[in-house]
Every structure is written in structure tokens, then in C-alpha cells.
């Protein structure tokens, strides 16, 4: 298996020499973060099919990621693209239940929460509803993979999720922040298994898509 240090070396060298035409094309319109002269890596994804490793680099001042594709056997970069920032959560909101009421309905870990009437993060307005969000995977990843992992977690507390769906506004929220370089954004591909899990949990899904960044020159 290709090591993390080899991956870091390959990425650093490609961003420096730009042997792939697509590398030059991307770096005409964006940049990545560097730590002590080395490109910052947000995640090395070894969960894909075959011998392909995907390396995610946060793009400077943008929501999306640069995705570097490496053949782990040949130990060679063969493509570079972008991956949208994908946020996939189970979200439950209520204007009548408090945050603690919502928390009491599930045994699952909650990543984000707030109470109705509390100041928002901008400190300029108050929340009009209470909310909890369950998000098992905050790392860079495809929306489809994140959705699969979310369903796996929700299945551990079907009773609690059913309570939140029935008695609060419980649903799945998908937020996708794409690079709009060529104005072809992409979308969400739901598998038969995803649809089956949605049916089993009686849960709906809301998808929000946005485009960011400079177009290709």
C-alpha cells in the first residue's frame, strides 16, 4: 500500500512541476494552502474501488476541494479534478420543542445544536426554531458515501429517528458546494439502497446546490 509520505511527495512534486495539463489549468484560477512549503492535505481516501487513492486538498478561500487521483500500484498521479464540499446531515427542527427535548428523542451523537431564541453565530439575530444535526462524516468525501454512512448510523436508533420525523421536522439535508469552473456542476446520485433506507426510515431529503470559484480561462 502506498504510504502517506509517498502520497505527500507525489502531490508536492506535481503541484510544483505541473506535468499534467489539467494541473496548470486549475492553478491559473485557484490555489491551495501550504504549511512550511508543503501542500495541506485534508484527507487521503483509500475507500474507493480498485487501486485508486483520492487526496483532498482544501482550496484557498473556497468551499470546494482539489481532488488528486493516484494509482496506488504505479504510485503515480493520473488525474486532478475538484470535489464539492458535501455536508450530509439528519436535521430535526421545531418551533415548540426545545433543543433538550430534541436531544432527548435520540441516543445518537449530535454534532450541531441550538435553541430557539438564542443568538445566531452572527450575533445579530436570534434563532426562530430549535435544531439538532446528526453528521457522522465531516471529512471530505462524496455526497453518496456520506449518505451511506449517515443511513448506517441512523439505523442504530430507528425509534428515535421515527420520533423526530413524526413529531419534529426531521429530514436529511444535503448541501453541495461545487466549483463552477466549466459551469457543469454535477449532482447527487441516489442508489436503490439509499431509496430503500429512506423508505424504511420514512424520511425525506432536501438537496441544496451552490457554485463557487473562478471559471476556467
Secondary structure: elements and pairs:
Layout: H1 4-17, H2 21-27, E1 34-35, E2 38-39, E3 43-45, E4 52-58, E5 65-71, E6 76-83, E7 85-94, H3 99-103, E8 112-114, E9 130-134, H4 143-154, H5 158-167, E10 169-179, H6 192-201, E11 205-212
Main attributes?
217 residues; alpha+beta; five-stranded mixed beta sheet; four-stranded antiparallel beta sheet; 6 helices; 11 strands; elongated
Question: Can you describe what's shown?
Answer:
With 217 residues, the protein is of the alpha+beta class. A five-stranded mixed sheet has the order 8-9-7-10-11. It has a four-stranded antiparallel sheet with strand order 3-4-5-6. The chain has a two-stranded antiparallel ribbon with strand order 1-2. A hairpin with a 4-residue loop joins strand 5 and strand 6. Helix 4 runs parallel beside helix 6. The protein is elongated.
The string of secondary-structure elements, in order, is HHEEEEEEEHEEHHEHE
Q: What class, by secondary structure content?
A: alpha+beta
**What's the helix count?**
6
Spatial order of the strands forming the largest sheet: 8-9-7-10-11
Let me know the number of strands.
11
Gap between N and C termini: 37 Å
What percent strand?
Answer: 25-35%
Describe the global form. elongated
Give a short overview.
The protein is an alpha+beta fold and 217 residues long. The chain contains 6 helices and 11 strands.
Amino acid at each position: 500500500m502506498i504510504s502517506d509520505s509517498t502520497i505527500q511527495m507525489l502531490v508536492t512534486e506535481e503541484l510544483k512541476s505541473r506535468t499534467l495539463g489539467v494541473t496548470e489549468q486549475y492553478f491559473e484560477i485557484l490555489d491551495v494552502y501550504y504549511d512550511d512549503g508543503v501542500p495541506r492535505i485534508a484527507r487521503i481516501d483509500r475507500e474507493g474501488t480498485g487501486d485508486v487513492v483520492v487526496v483532498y486538498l482544501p482550496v484557498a478561500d473556497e468551499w470546494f476541494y482539489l481532488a488528486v487521483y493516484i494509482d496506488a500500484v504505479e504510485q503515480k498521479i493520473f488525474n486532478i479534478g475538484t470535489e464539492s464540499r458535501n455536508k450530509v446531515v439528519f436535521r430535526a427542527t421545531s418551533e415548540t420543542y426545545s433543543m433538550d427535548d430534541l436531544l432527548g428523542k435520540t441516543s445518537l451523537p449530535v454534532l450541531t445544536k441550538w435553541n430557539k431564541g438564542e443568538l445566531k453565530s452572527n450575533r445579530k439575530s436570534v434563532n426562530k426554531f430549535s435544531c439538532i444535526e446528526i453528521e457522522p462524516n465531516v471529512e471530505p468525501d462524496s455526497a453518496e458515501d456520506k449518505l451511506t454512512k449517515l443511513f448506517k448510523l441512523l439505523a442504530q436508533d430507528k425509534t428515535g429517528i421515527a420520533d423526530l420525523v413524526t413529531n419534529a421536522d426531521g429530514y436529511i439535508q444535503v448541501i453541495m458546494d461545487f466549483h463552477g469552473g466549466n459551469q457543469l456542476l454535477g449532482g447527487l446520485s441516489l442508489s436503490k439502497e439509499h431509496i430503500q433506507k429512506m423508505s424504511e426510515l420514512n424520511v425525506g431529503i432536501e438537496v441544496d446546490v451552490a457554485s463557487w470559484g473562478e471559471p476556467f480561462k
